[in-house]
Amino acid sequence: MTHRPAQTDIDIHPLIAARWSPRAYAERPVAHEQVLALLEAARWAPSAFNAQPWRFVVFEKGQDPDAFARAFATLIPFNQTWNAPAQVLIVVLADTLTSKGTVNPSASYDAGAAAMALLLQAQAQGLAAHPMSGFDASAFRQAFVIPERYAALSVISVAHHGDAQALPAALAEREAAPRARLPLDEIARFGGWQAPVREQ
């Protein structure tokens, strides 16, 4: 397991600093109880009007290998290469309609909050979890007959941590590379909007 805590400018909670998206997975089953804990964490995310628009379609390799393989096939080829040892795929969906049938403009935002809660729970459990936009949402919708009101947003693969050196050289290098984020003064404004000089 590669430990890559964020080198933050300001102290933040260790769980948040430690969370990252590894690609080195071990070919070892993830217990169903651990998967349920991930979903329970997501269940308690905040949402506008408490609408709770997140939905998850869960594929466990050890429980239903055929369904897992069908879901795996919707990943883009690059993501398939390193996800071969993955044990769980969780597809994150957003219910785009309210209980009244009107459009819910907060659905994707709220589903993202639930996904982050899931990722933090995975970190707390010592699991590796990697969210991906690289999948064919249309193929997934067709393969699993997803109703139109649900938008497929991402796939989170879950496994136990593996050996980064077992990855192809380019990915192994990325696994150990320093983590980077934009500085605070590029993402936050205080008291109003003032664009950085480079954006003016």
TrEMBL record:
Entry-linked Pfam families: Nitroreductase
Keyword Oxidoreductase annotated: yes
Domain Nitroreductase: 16-158
InterPro entries to which the protein is assigned, alphabetical: Nitroreductase, Nitroreductase-like
Keywords: Oxidoreductase
Membership in a protein family: Belongs to the nitroreductase family.
Record bears the keyword Oxidoreductase: yes
GO molecular function: oxidoreductase activity
Organism of origin: Caballeronia ptereochthonis
Protein name per its UniProtKB record: Oxidoreductase
